[in-house]
Design brief:
The chain contains six helices and three strands, in the order αβααββααα. By secondary structure, it is α+β, with helices and mostly antiparallel strands. Strands 1-3-2 form a three-stranded antiparallel beta sheet. The mean pLDDT is 87.
Amino acid sequence: MEEFKTLLVKNLKNNGFPDKKIAFDIETIYEKCDQRGFSFNKLVPLLEEEGIAVDIQTEKIIFSKLIQQEAPNLEDQMEMAKKMMENMSPQQLDNIKKMYEQMSDTDKEELMKKAKDMGML
């Protein structure tokens, strides 16, 4: 699989990647992977690690530069949550409270753990 990934990346670069989006025939790519004994879908995460986005279409696979999005920092997330709650009606806040109360103990624990990990508690 690593050998095919290297060959694919080389072909992409020869065709103008990463400056251009490159499309290859889906059947050809799938057949080449199958001939080498693996599924193309298993190759996708390896390509993403290389900074290559994969868009599988009906007849082609489009390769483009993977755009890394910065995760909002904790302060920004807290501010967004605060603003959202300030804009909620009392009924919406009550619905959230009821939804929480109806959660299983396991789900509640998991939610609290996530809140602690984010520094909210």
